[in-house]
Amino acid sequence: xxxxxxxxxxxxxxxxxxxxxxxxxxxxxxxxxxxxxxxxxxxxxxxxxxxxxxxxxxxxxxxxxxxxxxxxxxxxxxxxxxxxxxxxxxxxxxxxxxxxxxxxxxxxxxxxxxxxxxxxxxxxxxxxxxxxxxxxxxxxxxxx
Length: 144
Description:
Structural class: alpha/beta
Shape: globular
Strand content: 15-25%
Distance between the termini: 5 Å
Number of strands: 5
């Protein structure tokens, strides 16, 4: 697995999710103010033959194919809220998403919450340490 590791962070939003969308060629990640990535997103890209319809599948929703990438965004948000609530909390429980497209290479990446040094309203006082520990748990793996 590969993990995007920006060297510098200026708050929680540093464009990691936008990079992933550029790689896929689709807008499919939640957007908003503050912390958007609140659970790890294990994104597996699978190259399919030209002419085939691209689609997405979630591990938590087996056999359901998403061809509308706005619906993928909504499902990521809904699944995040299911575990964290509609708050600014984070969770270590990953969301697994596979995207099948003729426009990608076979690749697995993990989108993680951005490192922060400032606690914002609605976040636990331990958010800085919680995110650092989550990121560390991924980047310290030998396979990374």
